[in-house]
Automatic annotation (TrEMBL):
Transmembrane segments: none annotated. Residues 152-173 are annotated as: Disordered. SUPFAM superfamilies: Winged helix' DNA-binding domain. It comes from the Bacteria. GO terms for molecular function: DNA-binding transcription factor activity. This is SUF system Fe-S cluster assembly regulator. Pfam families: Rrf2. GO terms for cellular component: cytosol. Residues 160-173 have a biased composition (Basic and acidic residues). PROSITE patterns: HTH_RRF2_1, HTH_RRF2_2.
């Protein structure tokens, strides 16, 4: 199954929230706004700043703001900033795996990988943020559901009344 990492998902949530707030915001305030753990928010903001997606300001009145408008930040850039290059198999983009000579698919996954990358590059955070209204209290539903799970419950399921969510083990965030 292809699945976006929870950290890349959280990074998109943080960036959209920063865009909607439109002002300098602290990591603590973002954690409260989204329901994400503060250490996770700090870790993501550091990675996003290193990739120019957010700008950090030091000092007593410091915080973070977007490095670019949401309309200019693609989903592909967020994923790459957090997880590294988008590659669905080890043998994409000219790389060979140990089984390349025998499997017969060497180089064929490049087409799939490029199609996926093209879609992710065409969608922006503005597109993502325009979809659903904010949840009550400003809490990110996926973040609040994950923090309610007992530590170490890989693959746990929790129903919100509207949807059932599968959560990965969050003990190693």
């Amino acid at each position: 199954m292809l699945r976006l990492s929870k950290l890349a998902d959280y990074a998109a949530v943080l960036l959209v929230r920063l865009g909607k707030l439109g002002e300098l915001t602290t990591a603590v305030a973002l954690a409260q706004e989204t329901g994400m753990p503060e250490p996770t928010v700090a870790k993501l903001l550091k990675a996003l700043a290193a990739n120019g997606l957010v700008v950090s300001f030091r000092g007593a009145r410091g915080g973070y703001r977007l490095g670019e408008p949401l309309e200019q930040i693609s989903i592909a850039r967020v994923i790459t900033a957090i997880d590294g290059p988008i590659s669905i198999t080890a043998c994409c983009d000219g790389y060979e795996c140990a089984h390349g000579a025998k499997c017969g698919l060497s180089g064929q996954w490049d087409k799939v990988n490029q199609a996926l990358r093209t879609v992710l590059e065409s969608m922006t955070l503005a597109d993502m943020g325009a979809g659903k209204p904010q949840s009550p209290g400003g809490i990110c539903p996926s973040a609040s559901m994950l923090t309610d799970l007992p530590v170490g419950q890989a693959g746990a399921r929790r129903s919100t009344g509207r949807e059932t969510v599968e959560a990965e083990d969050i003990s190693r965030s």
